[in-house]
What we know:
The complex is a heterodimer.
Chain A (H helix, E strand, L loop, with lengths): L1 H20 L19 E4 L4 E3 L8 E4 L9
Antiparallel strand pairs in A: 1-2
Chain B lengths: L1 E2 L3 H10 L7 E2 L4 H6 L13 E4 L5 E5 L7 H11 L6
Parallel strand pairs in B: 1-2
Antiparallel strand pairs in B: 3-4
Amino acid sequence: MMKTFVMSAVFGIATATMCAQTPQTPADTGLEVGDPAPNFELKGSDGKTWRLSDLKGKTVVLAWFPKAFTGG
Amino acid sequence: MASVDTLEDNTKFAQMHEADFPILADPDKRVATAYGVIPAGRQTAARWTFYVGPDGKILFIDKQVRAATAGEGIAAKLGELNVKRR
Lengths: 72, 86
């Protein structure tokens, strides 16, 4: 039990350190709160084509992630 | 969710996790570039989440997303932004 906890803690620190060593510093386009979100037209895993402009009137969460099959 | 993976990969990824939301594919990186999420010298998107309001304007940009708790983070942020639950 204790060993599991310690391992978890070590893993947590390792993860944090890795994050610290590889800071995500995307090329900043200067997008800020209040700016119009760039429109997009992308195909989704549900087979549909999604356009931001079709979603007016709804709140949209666009969560970018690095790579499929790598833990989300 | 969105990434610069192919549609095929993202579809398999969504099926594997039984995602109840679409995962969008931007393999040519055009949209990712417009959102500024590709770090210099990298080929994949950073883990940034954009919240877009009903008027199409950006409500919030989360640049500190933790993969393990991203779902809870989004739910909490939507609450803060006063987005009504369905």
